[in-house]
Each structure stands twice: as C-alpha cells, then as structure tokens.
C-alpha cells in the first residue's frame, strides 16, 4: 500500500509520461489517419495505392518491431531525436493505419444518395464533403475511434520497455528499491485503468451528444 | 476494394468524365513523381550512411547466424502456436461462463473478461515474468492467452447470441438440453460466422509474440537484436531491420489474407448467410480495439 504514498512523485511522473505519450500520439494518429483515409477514397489511382500500402504494411507490423526499427534503427540513419519523440512517431504511425480504416468505413456508411443529392443541388466538392458527408461519417465513427485510442493508450506501455519515461517503466526503479512487486503492479494497473476509463467516458459523452441513434 | 480498379460511383464524387479523367491523370503523375523522389531520397540516405557496405551484410552469410535467426523464428512460431491454442480454449471456457444460467459463474467470467481486456498485454506479461518469477516462454504465452482469450470470449459470445433465436428454440422444443443445444446447434453456426474475426484475433496474437523480446525470450526479434548490436559487423541495425521486417510482416499478412479469404468465401455461402453477423471490423486487428 505504501508503495504509492512513498513514491507518489515517481508514479506521477510515469502516469504523466503515459498521458503525454497518448495525447501526442493520438493527435499524430488522427492527422495521419485522416490524410491516409482521404488518399484511400481519392479518385487518383496512385494516391489510393499509397494509402493501401501504408495501411496494409502498418497493420501487419508488430508494434515491438516498429519501436525497434524507429528507436534503435533510425539513429543509425543519422536521425537523432529524443526517445519520447521517436516513441510518439512509432505509436502515432502505427495507430494511424487503424484510424484510417475506421474513418474510411465511416465514409462508407454514408449512403451514395446523400452525395448525389448534394451534387444535384449544385454543391461544390468542398460543400458536399464538409456539409453533407463528413458530419454523417463523423457521427458513426465515434465509438470505433474511441476504442482505437484506448488501444493506443494500452500500447504505449511498450514505450516504457524501450526506456521512455512512462507508467510501466516505474516498476524497474521500485523493484530495485525493494518494494513489494505485487503492489507496485497493482498501482500501475490502476493507473492504466484511470487512463482507459477516462478515454472511454469521454467518447461515451461524445457519442451521447452526436452519435446516431440506430 | 482493390487499389487499382477505376473508381465506381461513391458518395464523394460522380464517375469522372473525360476532362476530369485527364486532370486526375495529371494528379496521378505528380504524386507518383513525388513518391519516387521520396523513395530515391531514402535510398540515397541509405547509401550515404554506408548501409550497403559488405561488412554490414556479411553476417547473413554465416551459417551460425542463419541458424540463430531460424531458431528465433521457430521460437516465435512456437509461442504463437501455444498462445493460439490456449487462448481459443480459454475463450471458449469464458464464453460458456458468460452465457451460464448461474449468476455467480456469469459474474466471475464477466469480471475476468473485462479486466484482462482493459489491461495492457505487456503489463500482464511483465507481472507474470517479474512478480511471479515465471520463465520467459510460459510468461509470454500466459499473458497472450489471458488477453486474447478474453477478447475471443466476447467474439464467441456475440457469435452465439447472433444465431437466430428460432434455432435454439427449435432445439429446445425437440427436447435437447442446454449443453446439446449449444454444442450441436448454436456453436457450429456461430463459429462459421465468426471464423474471420477469430483469425484476425490470431493475427494480433502472432504480432504480440514479439513482446517476448522485451522479457528476454529468445524469439525472432531477439535474434535480430543480437546480430544488430554486434560490433564486429559494424552494428548492422538497418540491414537487420530490412531482413526481419519483411518476414514478420509477411507472416501476419498471410494470416490476415486468410481471414479475408474465409470472409469472402462465407459471404457467398448460403449456410452462413442466414446468420447475420457483422463483418470483421477493421479495428479488430489492433490489440485492445473492440
């Protein structure tokens, strides 16, 4: 029990590290995922190929391998950045493939007639997209985006094993200090639960507000 | 949806006319040129940092190192085989528990499923490895089994619940007991419909075997790391990544393609069409996504 009270600052640092990693990686994943999803539904063939290759390769890459390649491989390339930035890069790129597929399936849920109706009213491409298609797609992708981001938060644990300051990483120090290992892990587990439950609650609220009732 | 087919009518745009097609061709050429420039720049960087010197690629010629890699690959597949079989078994047990008529059994299995799905797999693996002092292979397999087993339990449960109610009612009307109804009537139909999702979940298990690297299990990535950090070969990190990743990605892709192939075959199959089960969501390939 006193593992937490004695080492509150260490746990706090690890917890904030996980939160920070999750937030930055989520932003990167959303942006990249949006770009790749728009590539995948684009009328230009080569853009569709880029999107498809990006998604297929990243979805089938073990995240540990990606971390290995980015954190240990890229520096050999002459690219030296802080480990945290590398971790955000690996986590964000990996998750972007899943976000891309979620967004694309969201666009696919909008009936073709909606777009046709918008065009026949004389709306431009931008108007069709911004006023008709995306608002409907957005409402149907809230739950799957939420679970993808929860998965991201859980996956960020791997960064800790690659010596990025992060919640799981705290166990090493506490283990060396001789604290009860079981309790150490209990508090780590509680930390992750707080993060994932918060994301899940956030998306629950969003879904209640904007989700489609089916 | 294939990447190369000409676009059919979508919600986003009409089928393009001759003028638009010409414009799209220009966009296509410009983006291809940009992409090729990017690839060329990466290749230039690779040569610039001497990644193709013979010293860095020579390790792959040695028999001992090839054997090291093969042993690593074997260990990866071994962990995957154990984890796959055990998580299917655990999934079945937990699904039966959640469908049980006895409230305590239902509660216990619900709590187990929810807890193991909410925890990062790596935290569980580390807990088993560090706190319970288990050997790397059993720790890895146990962690993967607990996580994938509880995800599969939900897959099985929703599968059984999605079989048409009349099927079960008819079986009960024939005088079958609950065990018989489940094993002879509901489960066979549910498993057929759920097969693509189950295989996709096994891809997650295969990908996650690489977590064994972090607890010093001597799997494929571990073998790669040993070679990569060897000073005699001038630290061949990039060559190792270039050799290992295609094999890893290839294995996972093969299994994913198998899942889509099964899904496509089933969509034409009248026997499974009767069971209206949602297609495997794209997110299911990701650990933790529901």
UniProtKB/TrEMBL annotation, chain A:
Subcellular location field: Cell membrane
Keyword match Membrane: yes
Keyword annotations: Amino-acid transport, Cell membrane, Membrane, Transmembrane, Transmembrane helix, Transport
InterPro entries reported for this sequence: AA_ABC_transptr_permease_3TM, ArtM/GltK/GlnP/TcyL/YhdX-like, MetI-like, MetI-like_sf
Segments forming domain ABC transmembrane type-1: 15-203
UniProt keyword annotation of Transmembrane helix present: yes
Membrane topology: Multi-pass membrane protein
Signal peptide: none
Main subcellular location: membrane
Classification via Pfam families: BPD_transp_1 (PF00528)
TM annotation in the entry: 21-41, 53-72, 79-99, 181-205
Family, as annotated: Belongs to the binding-protein-dependent transport system permease family. HisMQ subfamily.
Protein name stated in the entry: Amino acid ABC transporter permease
Native species: Streptomyces castrisilvae
Automatic annotation (TrEMBL), chain B:
Segments forming domain ABC transmembrane type-1: 73-259
Domain of life of the native organism: Bacteria
Family annotation (InterPro entries): AA_ABC_transptr_permease_3TM, ArtM/GltK/GlnP/TcyL/YhdX-like, MetI-like, MetI-like_sf
Membrane spanning stretches: 26-47, 79-99, 111-132, 237-263
PROSITE patterns (alphabetical): ABC_TM1
Subcellular location: Cell membrane
Topology relative to the membrane: Multi-pass membrane protein
Record-linked Pfam families: BPD_transp_1
Family: Belongs to the binding-protein-dependent transport system permease family.
Protein name according to UniProt: Amino acid ABC transporter permease
Organism annotation: Streptomyces castrisilvae
Lineage: Bacteria, Bacillati, Actinomycetota, Actinomycetes, Kitasatosporales
């Amino acid at each position: 029990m006193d593992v937490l009270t004695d080492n509150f600052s260490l746990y706090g640092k690890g917890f904030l590290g996980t939160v920070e990693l999750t937030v930055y990686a989520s932003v990167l994943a959303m942006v990249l995922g949006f770009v790749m999803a728009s590539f995948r539904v684009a009328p230009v063939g080569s853009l569709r190929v880029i999107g498809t290759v990006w998604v297929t390769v990243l979805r089938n890459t073990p995240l540990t391998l990606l971390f290995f390649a980015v954190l240990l491989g890229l520096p050999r390339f002459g690219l030296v950045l802080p480990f945290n930035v590398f971790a955000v890069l690996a986590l964000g790129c990996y998750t972007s493939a899943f976000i891309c597929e979620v967004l694309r399936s969201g666009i696919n849920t909008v009936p073709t007639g909606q777009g046709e109706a918008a065009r026949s009213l004389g709306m431009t491409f931008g108007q069709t997209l911004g006023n008709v298609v995306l608002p409907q797609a957005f409402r149907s992708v809230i739950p799957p985006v939420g679970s993808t981001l929860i998965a991201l938060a859980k996956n960020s644990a791997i960064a800790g094993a690659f010596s990025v300051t992060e919640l799981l990483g705290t166990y090493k120090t506490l283990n060396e200090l001789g604290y009860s290992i079981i309790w150490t892990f209990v508090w780590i587990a509680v930390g992750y639960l707080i993060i994932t439950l918060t994301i899940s609650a956030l998306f629950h609220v969003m879904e209640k507000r904007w989700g489609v009732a089916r | 949806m294939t990447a190369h087919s000409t676009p059919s009518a979508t919600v986003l745009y009409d089928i393009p006319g001759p003028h638009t097609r010409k414009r799209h061709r220009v966009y296509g050429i410009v983006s291809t040129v940009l992409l090729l420039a990017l690839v060329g720049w990466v290749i230039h960087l690779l040569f610039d940092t001497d990644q193709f010197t013979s010293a860095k690629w020579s390790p792959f010629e040695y028999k001992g190192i090839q054997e090291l890699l093969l042993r690593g690959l074997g260990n990866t597949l071994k962990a995957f085989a154990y984890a796959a079989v055990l998580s299917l078994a655990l999934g079945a047990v937990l699904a039966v528990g959640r469908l049980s008529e006895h409230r305590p059994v239902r509660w216990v299995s619900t709590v187990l499923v929810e807890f193991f799905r909410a925890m990062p797999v790596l935290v569980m693996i580390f807990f088993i490895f560090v706190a319970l002092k288990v050997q790397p292979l059993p720790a890895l397999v146990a962690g993967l089994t607990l996580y994938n087993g509880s995800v599969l339990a939900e897959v099985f449960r929703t599968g059984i619940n999605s079989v048409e109610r009349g099927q079960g009612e008819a079986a009960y009307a024939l005088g079958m007991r609950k065990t018989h109804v489940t094993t002879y009537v509901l489960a066979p139909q549910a498993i057929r419909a759920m097969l693509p999702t189950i295989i996709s979940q096994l891809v997650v298990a295969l990908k996650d075997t690489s977590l064994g690297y972090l607890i010093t299990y001597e799997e494929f990535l571990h073998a790669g790391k040993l070679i990569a950090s060897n000073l005699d070969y001038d630290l061949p990190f990039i060559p190792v990544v270039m050799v290992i990743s295609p094999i890893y990605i290839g294995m996972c892709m093969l299994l994913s393609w198998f899942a889509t192939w099964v899904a496509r075959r089933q969509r034409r199959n009248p026997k499974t069409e009767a069971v209206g089960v949602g297609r495997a969501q794209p997110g299911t390939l990701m650990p933790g996504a529901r």
